[in-house]
C-alpha cells in the first residue's frame, strides 16, 4: 500500500506519514494537530473513522463507525473543519452539518441555522478564523465576486466581512492559511493557486529569511502572458476584499487542484 505523507522535514530525512487506511475510502481526512486524525465519507455510506497517534509517533488502528446516514450534500471542494471540539462541514446550500465524536453513533446533525447565503457560488472554503470563529470564503463564477462571511455564533447567522484587518488568506485548496501581515500589498487579500501560463518546470531558490528556510520562485523564469491590452506576470492570482471591478484576469488563469499552501512560520 503506498504511503501518504502528512508532514515533511525539508532540512532532514524525517517525514510523518498518514496511517494506512484498509477498510474504507474517505472523501476527507482532517488532522487536529494534536495526534488525532478523522476520516469522513460524505458521499456513499457516510463512514467515519478516527485514528490516534501515541507518544512514540506511531499511529494506532482506525476505529470506524457507520452511523445512520443523514442526507445532505456537502459544498463542493470545501473541507471539514475542527471547531470547538466538533467537526463542521459546509453544505451546498450554506447550512452547516456538525459531528460530535462523543456521540458518534448519532452521526451528523444539520443545524437549523445558519441558512443559505442567498446567492449562487462556484467554490467555497470553510476555515477557522484566527480569533476562534468559523469563516467561509465564497468564490463566484469566473472569480467574481469573492465574499467572506463570518459565523455569528450568538445569532447563528452568516455576517459578511468587509475587511480582514490586515490579514491575508491563502486558500483555493484543501489547506487554508490565514496570516497577519505588515506588507500593505498583501493585506485584506485572498490568494488562490490559479496561475498565469505556468511552466512545466518551476525554478526556485532555497533561501533563508528571518531565520526560516523557504522555496522562492526564481525571477529567472519570469514570463509574461498578454490578455487583451494588459500584460500579467507569471504569478498566483489574488483578490482584494471590497474590490468592485470585475476581475477579468481570473478567466485566463489555470486551476491547480493539487496545490497546497505551506506555512513556514513557527507561530
From TrEMBL:
Native species = Hordeum vulgare subsp. vulgare
Per UniProt, residues of the KIB1-4 beta-propeller domain are: 35-191
Q: Name one Pfam family in it.
A: Beta-prop_KIB1-4
What is the protein named? KIB1-4 beta-propeller domain-containing protein
**This protein's superkingdom?**
Eukaryota
Q: What is the lineage of its organism?
A: Eukaryota, Viridiplantae, Streptophyta, Embryophyta, Tracheophyta
Amino acid at each position: 500500500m503506498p504511503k501518504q505523507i502528512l508532514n515533511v522535514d525539508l532540512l532532514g530525512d524525517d517525514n510523518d506519514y498518514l496511517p494506512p487506511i484498509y477498510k474504507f475510502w474517505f472523501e476527507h481526512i482532517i488532522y487536529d494537530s494534536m495526534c488525532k486524525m478523522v476520516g469522513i465519507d460524505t458521499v456513499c455510506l457516510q463512514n467515519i473513522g478516527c485514528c490516534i497517534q501515541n507518544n512514540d509517533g506511531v499511529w494506532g488502528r482506525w476505529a470506524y463507525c457507520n452511523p445512520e446516514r443523514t442526507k445532505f450534500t456537502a459544498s463542493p471542494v470545501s473541507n471539514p473543519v475542527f471547531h470547538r471540539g466538533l467537526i463542521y462541514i459546509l453544505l451546498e446550500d450554506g447550512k452547516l452539518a456538525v459531528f460530535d465524536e462523543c456521540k458518534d453513533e448519532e452521526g451528523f446533525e444539520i443545524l437549523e441555522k445558519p441558512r443559505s447565503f442567498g446567492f449562487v457560488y462556484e467554490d467555497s472554503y470553510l476555515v477557522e478564523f484566527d480569533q476562534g470563529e468559523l469563516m467561509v470564503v465564497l468564490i463566484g463564477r469566473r472569480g467574481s465576486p469573492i465574499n467572506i462571511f463570518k459565523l455569528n455564533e450568538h445569532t447563528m447567522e452568516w455576517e459578511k466581512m468587509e475587511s480582514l484587518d490586515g490579514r491575508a488568506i491563502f486558500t483555493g485548496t484543501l489547506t487554508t492559511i490565514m496570516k497577519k501581515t505588515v506588507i500593505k500589498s498583501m493585506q485584506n487579500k485572498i490568494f488562490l493557486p490559479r496561475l498565469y501560463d505556468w511552466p512545466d518546470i518551476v525554478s526556485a531558490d532555497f533561501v533563508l529569511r528571518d531565520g526560516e528556510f523557504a522555496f522562492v520562485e526564481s525571477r529567472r523564469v519570469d514570463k509574461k502572458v498578454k490578455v487583451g491590452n494588459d500584460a500579467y506576470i507569471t504569478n498566483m492570482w489574488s483578490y482584494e476584499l471590497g474590490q468592485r471591478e470585475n476581475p477579468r484576469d481570473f478567466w485566463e488563469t489555470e486551476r491547480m487542484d493539487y496545490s497546497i499552501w505551506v506555512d513556514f512560520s513557527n507561530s
